[in-house]
Amino acid sequence: MTPESPMDSTASEKKHNERAYVTFLAGNGDYVKGAVGLAKGLRKVKSAYPLIVAILPDVPEEHREILRSQGCSGLDGASPSERTESKTSLLLSGTLARSDESEFTLEPLDLLVVTVCARIWFEEYSKMIYLDADIQVYDNIDDLFDMEDGYLHGVLSCFCEKIWSYLPLYSIGWCQYRPEVTWPAEMESLPPPPYFNAGMFVFEPNPLTYESLLHTLQITPPTPFAEQDFLNMFFAKVFKPVPPVYNLILSVLWRHPGSVNLETVKVVHYCPPGAKPWRYTGEEPNMDREDVKMLIKQWWDIYNDESLDFKAKSAADLKENLSVSTIIASVPRPSVICLSPPAPPAA
């Protein structure tokens, strides 16, 4: 059941009123560079809160070691009930029994939905900010933790890229960044509800929401944008937008020039084709723009800055940190590892 009104905040009821950032890592690809870059970016802007990295069992040991060297330690978050744990295990294996006992098969992208959109809602934090690993933070955004409780907060998506061409709104040029384009009466329908980009959102973990997410997933057909569509559907009634400076989708630079002042942007989302800094060649469309080149360079400046690397308080702390396993092999749900609080600035 999706929330129809502001959700009850359980922050005051929790033993520890904690806050954290969270990102996600799966497979043996190169997204580990994004996670490391994000951790260093949060240190650079002196965030007061740690970064949690939710990882799947298929993340290789080499990548886990990289994360550990950046201050990662084991985190055995709140354990779901036996029923929920069993359900999550089935989801991650790709099957789930429906209420009529028939088998429900999940597509790979639906597994990502479970990992990103469901599991992180069970963690014992009062409030979290999810950030994709292809995001970099260029200014402190801890103020987002003070957004109104009971709602999910995020930045509106731009619908001007060709990936949205399957929707009628694309053909009429309607976009949330173009208020001058009105919804045509001949469409004989209401304009779409606000739709956020799921690369960044502020949420409040809650076991009841977790259960509801898993239940809703069972009866929701697959959609082109998997977890993003699912989250927008589930939280439609309790979504509140925040300014684009908290998640600048890179394509807005050429789709809506002048709508965002780069000097005020706090978060950049390197999501268009060819925009991942660690894969950047400059050959894809719009990647040869000077503003794009500048933002790519800024990402690499942070990634290569050794002064932003994790600094253990002592050799013993470092040895202990590096010896901690970040995956519980017998548990098929995603493990969660925690990047230690931001390193102090270099003297």
From TrEMBL:
<dbReference type="InterPro" id="IPR050587">
    <property type="entry name" value="GNT1/Glycosyltrans_8"/>
</dbReference>
<keyword id="KW-0808">Transferase</keyword>
<keyword id="KW-0328">Glycosyltransferase</keyword>
<comment type="similarity">
    <text>Belongs to the glycosyltransferase 8 family.</text>
</comment>
<keyword id="KW-0464">Manganese</keyword>
<protein>
    <recommendedName>
        <fullName>Hexosyltransferase</fullName>
        <ecNumber>2.4.1.-</ecNumber>
    </recommendedName>
</protein>
<dbReference type="Pfam" id="PF01501">
    <property type="entry name" value="Glyco_transf_8"/>
</dbReference>
<dbReference type="InterPro" id="IPR002495">
    <property type="entry name" value="Glyco_trans_8"/>
</dbReference>
<dbReference type="InterPro" id="IPR029044">
    <property type="entry name" value="Nucleotide-diphossugar_trans"/>
</dbReference>
